[in-house]
Amino acid sequence: MPAREPDPRDVLILPAPPPDAVVAYGPHLDHVADVRLPLTRSGPLVAPLVVVIHGGFWRAEYDRAHTGHLAAALVALGYPVAQLEYRRTGPGAPGGWPATFDDVVAGVEALPALVAAVAASLGRPAPAPGPPLLVGHSAGGHLALWYAAHAPSAPAGVLALAPVADLAEAHRLDLDGGAVTALLGGDPTTRAAAYAAAEPLPTMPLRSPTVIVHGTADVQVPISLSRGYASAARAGGSEITLSELPNVGHFELIDPRSAAWRKVTEALRSLQW
Q1: Beta strand ranges found along 16-66 (DSSP E)
Q2: pLDDT for 204-226, tens place per residue?
Q3: Cα angle: 172, vertex 178, 180; to 5 degrees
Q4: Which domains does the chain have, with CATH numbers?
Q5: How far apart are CA 132 and CA 151, in angstroms?
Q6: Contact criterion met (CB below 8 Å) for 125 and 113
Q7: Which DSSP helix (H) or strand (E) runs through 57?
């Protein structure tokens, strides 16, 4: 009898190896990142820092822990990795517009120096100089694309995995039962300015190479959002690669056990060299 394929949802709950360090980039309890570092340099080149921005529809019930397996797998490939936490939404939670977005900017800008200090203290290889690569999944993919389009500094590259790439359309589809409303505090009519500022679509051509990977069988975030984003971004002069994975769902993209993982790592390498 053939072995059963692993359930990609397991990646949300199975414990991952602990990080090498936890660093703080700000004063709030959520202003932290898990740092994982290779033991030695892999190959002749120094790998750039990879900042992982987790998904979970921006909600407080989901945190960076579920990207631990992805991060550990990237470290095994030679990348230094920081899993960024940020303020999120929910009862009593302080996230939403603009706090969540402010956190992403502050964290991405602070992490290269923080991770370099951790590497020095542990005697590990330091990340390559320069801005980090961003890897974001789902809502984290939205935040990675948004950072590339709107933050003061450009990342080295962006890999967006099944991103929520159109907030107005995600609101219309009512993804995850009001997730966008919770993020932005209302609908596109009553909160038009917030929606305009929080959309990831660039108003100018993107300054960073960008790859989107999205499964055609994704029911959490329909691939139509990535198709629409890629088409609109290209029309505005941005160079975007959209890799569509047939019969792949939402969570396979962050599960190193999945057949889709090879496509994810190929996409990440395409941003580097």
Answers
A1: 21-24, 32-36, 50-53
A2: 999 999 999 999 999 999 999 99
A3: 70
A4: 8-272 (3.40.50.1820)
A5: 13
A6: no
A7: none
